[in-house]
Amino acid sequence: MRTLTLAMTLLTLSCGPKSPSQTAPAVSEATAAETITAPTAEPEPEPEAEPVDAGPPPKPNNADLNVTITFADRTRKSGHVIRVERAIDWYGEDGWSMDTSDLTIAAESSTAYEKLSWEDVRSVSVQAGSIPGDVNCFYDSNWSPWMYECTLTTTSTLTDTSGGRWTVDNRHKWRLTFEDGTEVEFWLKKHCARQQDAEVVDLHSGNPENYALYTTLQDQIRADARGGMVVSVRVQ
After folding, report:
1. Is the pLDDT reported for residue 3 higher than 70?
2. Cα separations (Å) of 27 from 20, 31, 32, 33, 97?
């Protein structure tokens, strides 16, 4: 009887409730992801500063002359000239050249023809013709609208440093820059006034030539001959 009771007790103990499992619960993927430290983001580089446009480089100095310029109204500009330029075209509309080969003055005499540098010049005298008798006006139909021009005939006499006298045969415009920044532009042969018409000539134009513009340009020539036209250049 005791044997039966002991067997039943052992059977009861073996079939009783088991103790809770000691295995750690599984961690979900989301929870695991939260435990991983995110890498520190690299700061974005600062944008490079835009380069400052300093404009075109300054022109070099190419002259060392003491010059006195006299204008038609008898006012004068005197000083140290540091730059000499010659217009690429006759008028300075296509820019200015500082090439040594361009900076010579074509000069002729009854027996010779020379190209003189400004260092060879002692003085130039510009004698204007009469107005309107020595003013020639015309238009250029290669422009659209047409370009109108009036030109005053002038005679320029050049005296070189050795005392020789020459007649200037050079239609290009000149520009002298003084040390104080003043620029003086002038012609030594044929003083011009130019203006483009406001209207384009077409098949419906009655009389295409603008005579009123001729009058305007002649008035400008007349004003220049009394005021700002250069009449002499003296180099010391």
Report:
1. no
2. 19, 7, 7, 10, 84
